[in-house]
Design a protein that fits this description.
One of its GO terms (cellular component) is cell envelope. It is built from 20 helices and 4 strands. It is mainly α.
């Protein structure tokens, strides 16, 4: 019945409009009619089924209505995420408080994931009033989102971009279970989202190849009912990548220019795994800070030159290329002999593809991160101003700065030093590991065990819900608009008989919000085979220790009291062979581009 209602609503609107004596509807007009009808259907289901049953119905019926509501939302997701992202986050964002660090405030989450927590794994009758309140809030936000969509002008270029991004969203978030962590219906919902993409693309005309791919992808996902065993690699290689390639090529054939040329995703990249799919300059913050070949070359010179600090240390002292820009130590050596700095040296590879730097996320740009390290008395104990003065006295550097920054007429400033260093770090995003080359279809480069590990990483082990493809850090594609931190409860010593939390309170030191106590940025797991020891305290010597920690549900899963832990405390129940498969997959993310 649900499918009939959805289809009838769309067809009725299209028939009424097509019967007018005006010119034929454009793809944009058809899309507007389609999404408004689907939004009305979603609102009807949420209000007249989910809300009504939540007010007085049995738990089983509420869950059925909730599942129907989620499926109806997936019909419009590509529009809400693209055109109304703020409302979309309220409709289907993570069930965690929204933290505004600048305002030192937290805001309670809302939407389908919050509603899900009231229904799964166990429904509590005592929470019925709260459930009803959340559903009413969802309906209200939905109305606001509809108004945004109704008043937004759709263009053909943006519609195609929205469709492409929805395919990426299915791969990265839907199939990882990010927005259905308890109900685990992400695979079935992918089928509905694909159906919506197919419907919207049909407004542009016929494309038999693309239609066939989408149809087969819909059938493939609709037949999968086990979240853990779903073959994500097969879906991406057989359907998702071919769909986005075909869509990109079709857009060229239709002579529709690419939308958002300066966006985070390269609009002419054919898949999410293309080497140039992610625009490194999107994260720069300003046109002046954007990396260029001249800035990168200059930044590399500065990175390995003690002239920056004025002593014997360089950036490369703690970030060695052969160790994926780490130093192999639990905590880096401080300037004073026999002492160490506060935390482990993280990799700088892909560090530019995030919105916060340092484990505690206190720096919002690579420029400010560079300045903080140079100033730190334990790390470099220098001055950016003094560094600029020294560089001005060296003709080769002055010339290099003038080539990189044509606006420099007389002298190098501290700002130019920081931008040059940041530009080099931004360039450290090769996307050329064995995994990347496999995903681009260069040839079959992954073993059966490694593919199994990828599927576990993105499925049963839930790694992909925090370490998002393709960067595998805390910045989620396809929007890349937020870098996440997590509270997982890192132990002081994972080998100790009695587990004890590490004393480092992370982000809480900078921002006194209870939710941030023991919170740390989610780093990339790319090149993880080269970046041991692990965690901010460097206490975990091997990947087996790390996997054991997650398999047990972090600190809370081990029995420690950590009420604000964001990592689910339930054990993952991974077998030893599954753990080894995940480790094998992680090793495929090693990239030796900068090793020499």
């Amino acid at each position: 019945m649900k499918k009939f209602i959805l289809t009838a609503a769309v067809l009725l609107n299209l028939i009424l409009l097509c019967c007018t004596p005006d010119a034929p509807l454009t793809p944009s007009q058809k899309a507007k009619t389609y999404v408004l009808a689907e939004m009305d259907t979603l609102a009807h289901i949420a209000e007249h089924k989910l809300l009504r049953l939540a007010s007085a119905g049995p738990s089983d019926s509420i869950r059925i209505a909730f599942a129907e509501t989620r499926m109806a939302y997936k019909q419009v997701e590509l529009f809400t995420e693209y055109y109304a992202p703020t409302a979309s986050k309220e409709l289907n964002g993570a069930a965690l408080p929204e933290i505004e660090v600048e305002e030192t405030k937290t805001f309670e989450p809302s939407g389908l994931q919050v509603i899900e927590e009231h229904l799964y794994p166990v429904y509590e009758e005592s929470n019925r009033k709260e459930l009803v309140r959340e559903i009413k809030k969802f309906i209200s936000i939905l109305g606001r989102a509809r108004n945004v969509l109704e008043s937004t002008e759709f263009t053909e270029a943006h519609l195609l971009s929205a469709c492409k991004q929805e395919i990426y969203r299915i791969m990265v978030l839907g199939m990882a279970g990010f927005d259905t962590p308890l109900a685990a219906t992400g695979i079935q919902e992918a089928s509905v989202a694909l159906t919506a993409v197919k419907e919207v693309l049909s407004f542009f005309g016929e494309n038999p190849e693309l239609e066939k791919l989408l149809y087969e992808a819909i059938v493939y996902t609709s037949q999968q009912h086990n979240f853990d065993s779903f073959d994500r690699m097969a879906f991406i290689m057989r359907f998702a990548n071919p769909i986005t390639r075909s869509l990109t090529n079709w857009q060229t054939e239709l002579n529709i220019p690419a939308a958002d040329a300066q966006s985070v995703l390269n609009p002419i990249a054919t898949t999410l795994f293309d080497q140039d799919a992610v625009n490194i300059n999107y994260f720069a913050g300003s046109s002046e800070a954007q990396a260029t070949p001249a800035k990168i070359k200059l930044g590399k010179m500065l990175f390995f030159d003690p002239v920056v600090a004025g002593g014997t240390r360089t950036c490369g002292t703690c970030h060695r290329p052969e160790l994926a820009f780490t130093d192999g130590m639990p905590k880096s050596a401080a300037i004073e002999a026999g002492k160490v700095v506060q935390r482990n040296a993280p990799t700088l590879l892909y560090a530019g593809l995030q919105h916060a730097q340092f484990y505690d996320m206190r720096a919002t740009s690579l420029e400010s991160q560079a300045e903080a390290v140079i100033l730190n008395k334990e790390e470099m104990h220098g001055s950016v101003t003094e560094a600029a003065n020294r560089l001005n006295r060296q003709q080769n550097y002055l010339q290099a700065f003038q080539e990189a920054f044509p606006e420099i007429k007389a002298e190098v400033t501290p700002k130019h030093v920081m931008i040059a260093l940041a530009s080099y770090v931004r360039s450290l995003a090769p996307f050329n590991s064995r995994f990347d080359r496999h995903m681009r279809g260069e040839k079959e480069l992954l073993s059966v065990e490694e593919v199994k590990g990828f599927n576990l990483f993105m499925g049963k082990a839930k790694c992909g819900t925090c370490h998002f493809m393709p960067v595998f850090n805390g910045t989620a594609a396809p929007a890349f608009n937020n870098t996440e931190g997590e509270v997982i409860g890192v132990l002081q010593n994972p080998n100790a008989a009695l587990p004890k939390l590490d004393a480092d309170e992370g982000r809480y030191v900078q921002n006194q919000l209870a939710e941030l106590c023991y919170s740390f940025k989610t780093p990339t797991v790319r090149n993880i085979a080269k970046t041991a020891p692990y965690m901010h305290n460097g206490a975990y010597t091997g990947l087996e220790q790390v996997m054991d920690f997650y398999n047990k549900g972090g600190a809370a899963g081990m029995g420690l009291i950590l009420e604000n832990q964001t990592l689910p405390s339930d054990p993952l129940n991974l077998r030893e062979d599954e753990i080894q498969a995940i480790i094998a997959f992680l090793q495929t993310l090693t990239d030796d581009t900068y090793a020499n």
